[in-house]
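Q: Structure for this?
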Amino acid sequence: GAGVSQSPSNKVTEKGKDVELRCDPISGHTALYWYRQSLGQGLEFLIYFQGNSAPDKSGLPSDRFSAERTGGSVSTLTIQRTQQEDSAVYLCASSLRFGGRTTDTQYFGPGTRLTVL
Amino acid sequence: GENVEQHPSTLSVQEGDSAVIKCTYSDSASNYFPWYKQELGKGPQLIIDIRSNVGEKKDQRIAVTLNKTAKHFSLHITETQPEDSAVYFCAASTSGGSQGNLIFGKGTKLSVKP
């Protein structure tokens, strides 16, 4: 079946511009996660959604970052007034559910490579 | 919060040899430990995972061991092949409540030389 998809695959923007990154989770997955991967680094957790709700936004690096999810499916991660340090690969993952008695497998999309000039 | 350390950062082996990657975690409440393989330009792909109620799990050439007392877990790849070359990430998670997100190690770049 279809996996997690993300768009665009690559985005080059100028410092100070706003960008929107999109994630389409696996159909039926209620939980959705955003991570950031900087060059040569591990994956940094940003935010998760259970349905349309994001209970914990403390992982977002600054107030320039925001995310929303509508209809329990597609999610967008928005970065306002981009800075050069925002350059990274932004990865989205989804799982059947979040929390519960056992942790469900997270399936990752291919990522969006963001370059801020 | 949880912290995951991963070693080594790079590993080079000859085809056919074994490769071992080790991770330690700090939160004794963590109970789910997946391993992901990431090839260049792609997202991480789950290759094996282990939950805290077992000490070892094997899938063909790949095995994972977990020592809850010492809070460390390891990935073992036997009979390595060039296509095993990739970056491998370990992660830890505490299921339940608001703690289902994964905390990742910084990755190990594995190179298998033919």
